[in-house]
Design goal:
The complex is a heterodimer. By secondary structure, chain A is mainly beta. Chain A folds into 2 domains: about 5-55, no CATH class; about 60-70 and about 75-155, OB fold (Dihydrolipoamide Acetyltransferase, E2P) (Beta Barrel), CATH 2.40.50.100. Chain A is about 10% helix and about 30% strand. Chain A has a 4-stranded antiparallel sheet, with no helix packed on it. In chain B, about 25% of the residues lie in helices and about 30% in strands. Chain B has helices at about 5-10, 25-30, 80-95, 145-150, 155-160, 165-185, 190-200; strands spanning about 15-25, 40-45, 65-70, 100-105, 105-110, 115-125, 130-140, 205-210, 215-220, 230, 235-240, 245-250. In chain B, helix 3 (about 80-95) packs across helix 7. Chain B is globular. Chain B is α+β, with helices and mostly antiparallel strands. Classes of the chains: A mainly beta, B alpha+beta. The interface between A and B is large, with 43 and 38 residues.
Chain lengths: ~160, ~250
């Protein structure tokens, strides 16, 4: 749809009783509204990235008590996956240059901090739900993690 | 020293405050203990007070406020809006003193410089949000800032030339927070609209640092989740939620 066609469409709608008009095909979408509180025209409206924060609204996953059949990120290591409860950036240490909360091979107690996941400047400390041994740290320091993404593989004790 | 009795008289109730002289971080103290909702932990000095990226908040004994508040009843999906709500409450509390505005997500800006910083910390056990605390550093009566930060930071004293009673400001903030908290939790506070009243940079050019790259945008407010809406140079709206995001503005 070119600008001339859009102008024609607007003129047509303006003269009509149509309050709102929406059209969509594979490549483009157009939305025209005469309601003053709605946006006038949004063409080729990009899919807003609501997906990320909305994922937080989903029920938090229970960490599987039984060892997972296979860890997708690291097939060589088997164990229980600890997944990120929120979307954010994975940090292995409390501050840059500080020692990591846990290292592979460490035995940790329930309640011990494993990592921080930061989103919008909120520091979320992720604690172990049960006593376990860290078999693999899957989350990468300073890199984003998605909701539900595996961040550690552990062996419950 | 922080005067608890004075604070309580302004607050209109007693208890709910722990005033420490020196602590590693009030947030760490608040997260590690089991305190009732709205318990306030203050400290005259923090040895490991932290900001994002571990940056230290410039401390000054007895002049400013460093405190953390224990929050309750928050669902994980309310965390990001809570971050915005906290900045709004602090800006709102200080409106009678100075034209205080918010830089996303919740730095407080006055006279083009940073007046206060807010850092939320939570602890999750598995997928369950167990604790959430709100940490705030507010520059009040400090009138001389070290040269390296004086270009970026300010205080209420620098802005107005007056001294303020820290206990009163903290009590005003807590009363404001507690008074509006239920409305926030039940979704009766329209943060998207409030943002347009309080943003320091709405419709202004900003630059966002992400993964080491600095990109220019125009700020277009926030969405219902508290994420920043920023328009890129091609006129396309992007939603900024996370990543290694710094945020500054072009002078």
């Amino acid at each position: 749809m070119d600008i001339k066609e859009i102008k024609e469409l607007i003129r047509f709608i303006e003269k009509s009783d149509i309050k709102e008009f929406e059209y969509e095909n594979e490549n483009e979408s157009i939305y025209i509204s005469k309601n003053s509180d709605a946006p006038q025209i949004i063409q080729a409206a990009p899919q807003m990235q609501y997906a990320a924060p909305m994922q937080m609204a989903a029920p938090a996953p229970a960490v599987a008590a039984a060892p997972a059949a296979a860890a997708p990120a690291a097939p060589a290591v088997s164990g229980t996956e600890i997944k990120s409860p929120i979307v954010g950036t994975f940090y292995e240490a409390p501050s840059p240059g500080a020692a990591a909360f846990v290292s592979e091979g460490d035995t940790v107690k329930a309640g011990q901090t494993l990592c921080i996941i930061e989103a919008m400047k909120i520091m979320n400390e992720i604690e172990a739900e049960f006593d376990c041994v860290i078999k693999k740290r899957v989350g990468m320091n300073g890199k984003p993690v998605e909701y539900g993404e595996t961040i550690f593989i552990v062996e419950p004790i | 020293m922080f005067d608890i009795a004075l604070y309580e008289s302004f607050r209109g109730k007693s208890g709910g405050i722990i005033a420490l002289d020196c602590v590693d971080s009030t947030n760490a103290y608040a997260v590690s203990g089991s305190f009732p909702a709205f318990t306030v932990i203050t400290a005259e000095e923090q040895t490991a007070g932290r900001g994002r990226s571990g940056r230290k908040w410039h401390g000054a004994k007895g002049l400013n406020l460093y405190f953390s508040i224990v929050l309750s009843g928050i669902e994980p999906q309310k965390l990001l809006p809570m971050n915005i709500f906290a900045g709004y409450i602090l800006a709102d509390t200080l409106q009678d003193i100075a034209d205080v505005r918010i830089k996303w997500p919740n730095d407080l800006i006055a006279g083009g410089k940073k007046l206060a910083g807010i850092l939320m910390e939570t602890s999750f056990s598995g997928g369950n949000l167990e604790k959430a605390v709100l940490g705030i550093g507010l520059n009040i009566n400090i009138d001389e800032l070290p040269e390296e930060i004086s270009q970026m930071a300010t205080s209420l004293k620098i802005l107005t030339g007056r001294n303020f009673v820290r206990e009163e400001l903290l009590a005003l903030f807590m009363n404001n927070l507690e008074g509006k908290y239920d409305d926030f939790i039940t979704g009766r506070i329209n943060l998207v609209k409030l943002w347009s009243d309080y943003s320091a940079f709405l419709d202004k050019k900003i630059s966002i640092h992400k993964d080491g790259v600095k990109t220019q945008y125009t700020e277009r407010g926030i969405d219902q989740f508290g994420c920043l809406r920023a328009e890129n140079s091609l006129g396309k709206l992007e939603t900024i939620v996370t990543g290694d995001i710094g945020y500054d503005f072009c002078r």
